[in-house]
Structures are given as structure tokens and as C-alpha cells.
Specification:
Length: 278
Amino acid sequence: MVFRNSKSAEPRLRFLLANIFRHSANADLSQRIQMCDEALHLVKRKEDPVLWAGLECILGLCLGQYQLGDRSMNLERAIVALNESLTVLTCKDFPEQWGEIHNNLGNAYCNRMAGDRGENLERAIQAFETALEVRTREKYPMEWATTQNNLGLAYANRIVGRREENIERALKSYQAALGVITPDSFPLQYAETEINLGIAYQNRAKDGQASDIEKAIELYRKALSICTRESFPIQWGKAMNNLGTAYLARIEGDRAENMEQAILSPSEIFDSDRASLG
């Protein structure tokens, strides 16, 4: 999200805005949060509402992603900041930003620790579906795919409603995302979505479909064709662990061989970690 700051702003504010907006992708989150807080003390909503809302939006995004400190409090602050930004950045005047804010709001509710878990997930689903009103595949394909993946996660964890229906809706969202995300253009996002889709099939397999376990195994292996321990260690470990549980639950094939594969996958993670420590 990009907002132009006024050239007439005082030097300290100009410095803060230059650093907040210029280094939006790589800056340290803790530093950006501090700079946003300071800038918001210098920017008056009545005098520059768009800049004020932009700062609230960035603050909410950073707080939602920040893993250190009081995680629960950070998420509460993120939700407040994002909702504040929506009082200025309307769908009519700022459709792209409006969609981005709702997507970030959905992520914050998905991760929220305070309040009722089921209610938070319902709010997350509503926020993602609202974001998709403007984040269409035609106008914003990658943003659309990102929100579809997020919506899939929310449905996969949903407490309200029938479990089977929620899994089907999660599958639909992940599959939609993979219609845009490719291993060549977005390898990390592709691997993460393949893993999420595999988990959904594996959860559906609890109802007895052997083919769903086979599909899950195939998807984890696709993710592993992209993820190496060196390139994407977190996703690699997740895929390896899930592959092991899938082989453990596998119905097809030789039982002893499946057990060996189940043991092998997590042990490879352990052996690699032990080797790196040595």
C-alpha cells in the first residue's frame, strides 16, 4: 500500500514516512511498528485522513505479523488499527486498499487468541469473503489467490457448521488458488497451498476414503519437489511431517512398507536438524 506524504510535513515526520513506506517489504517489524506509532502522534486525522488511515493500515499489518512480545495484545491492536483505517479507506474510493485491509483483518481474526475461537473464525471468513468482492481473479489474480488460500485455512479450522461441508469449502478455495499460483512464478506460495490442500484431503480421509490419502501423499510430494531444507525449511519440515502421518494412515499398498515410509519422513527431519547442529 502506497500513500504520498506531504512535502510540507515537518522533518521528523518526513523521515518517518520515508522509512515506513520505502522499506515496506524488508524493514524490521519492531522498528516499523515504533515508527508508525510515532508518526500517528504527528499526523492528525482531520488534517490528513488518508495518510492517517494508511499509517493505521500499515501498523495493523505489522502488528498482525509480529511474533515477539505479547502476541495476543499485538493482534488486538492490529484489529483495532485495521478497523480504524476502514473508516477512511472506503471501498468506493480505495477499492484495492479496502480489499487488502479486509484480507489482513481476516488473518488477524484467524490468529486471534482473545475471545471465542468459533466466533473469531466466522469473522475471519466474513472478512476474506468481503475482500474477494474487490480482489477478483480478473483484476488482482495473485491477491485473489492469496485470499482464497486464507479462506481455505479459515474453513479448514472452522468450528461452526458441518465438518464435511467445511472441508469441501476449504478444498474448493485451495484448488481455486492453485489455478493462479504456479511453482515457477510463486514457489513458496505454491508449496504452502499444496501442503494446505494435502491436509484438507487427509482430514477428509478420516471418513474412510483411501483415495484421499493417496491424493494427500501426492500433494505433499509436489510441495517437496519445490521445498528443500535449504530453501524453505519450515515448509519442508511441515510437508515431511505430514507425509509421514499420511503414510501411517495409508490403506493402499503394503502395510510394512507404509510404516517404513512413515518412520522415514520424520526421521529425515531429525537427522537433518542434528547434522546442522553438529
